[in-house]
Amino acid sequence: MAGALVVALALIGLLGPGPLSSTKVSSPDGVISAEYQKYTRNQARREILLRISGAAICDGALRLSVSRNFSRTVSIESIHPEPRETVAGRDHLTYVFPVAGAAGVEVKLRFEPDRLGPHEYVIAAGNGSQIRLSTFVLP
Amino acid sequence: MDSVVRGLIVYVFLLIVFRISGRRTLSEATTFDLVLLLIISETTQQAMVDNDHSITNAFLLIITLVGASLVLLTVKAKFPAVSRWLDGLPVVVVRDGRLEREQMSRLRVDEDDVLEAARMLHGLERMEQIKHAVVERDGAISIVPRDKSSA
Fold first, then answer.
1. How far is it, in rounded angstroms, from Cα B133 to Cα B126?
2. What does the radius of gyration of chain A's CA atoms come to, in whole angstroms?
3. How confident is the model over B74-103, as pLDDT tens digits?
4. What's the average model confidence in pLDDT over B10-20?
5. Nearest C-alpha in B relative to A114
6. CB contact under 8 A, B2 and A15
7. What is the pTM of this model?
8. Distances in whole angstroms, Cα of residue B28 to Cα of each of A94, A137, B14, B136
9. Is A14 in contact with B2 (CB distance < 8 Å)?
10. Which of A60, A109, A129, B38 is the most buried (most CB within 10 A)?
């Protein structure tokens, strides 16, 4: 019975990827949005898919700021497309992406969580629009 | 969700593959068979675990596989036809000293296999000493020796 319950929880997405875990958040002005798995597991490869509209692009570049605790709590495997430069701030990392044209951009962050428990990250686009991502990392 | 689904898919796939390959596949213990099983084991592990090395994933896979096995046992107990399809029935390959060649060919059993089982189980040396030989559901061969008086 307990086993069936565990399997059911896993299937609905409370123990990892699944329907209840799939989350989409957007900034109030719709400039930046993210799709990610709310419930994830330690050292399991995951992705955050960011969509940023052209309103955040300035001078042919997109600046994306990610709160510092993100790089402290995960091992970042790759960022696609690759940023031209990474600028370290006091409480955030800013990735600068060259952009051709004024159309929207998709950025994929691929990482492995390193720390258990609840985490909240803030990702902001160059124009100030920001989103909050809440995750829970299971052992 | 992905752990449970992957575990179930691999479990069902292996069930079908080993059912098709025949019962002797799992009972034989030659070096090549051992190597094959080791490779299958490694491949299966990679497919199920993927890039998720968390404890939760391991627990989910174990619970899924054990649960699937229990469900299968229950289904086999409730539906004998399923049990017969999955496990087969014991098949007589030597009857009253006569080789049943068609059955032997179907089960990929030859005379050497029968004699090997006879030697190991009863210390018998010749086919004439064997009354019946049966390939059991698990692929093992059981031997009924001929009475010494009628050998």
1. 13
2. 16
3. 999 999 998 888 888 899 999 988 899 999
4. 86
5. B54
6. no
7. 0.76
8. 61, 45, 17, 13
9. no
10. A109
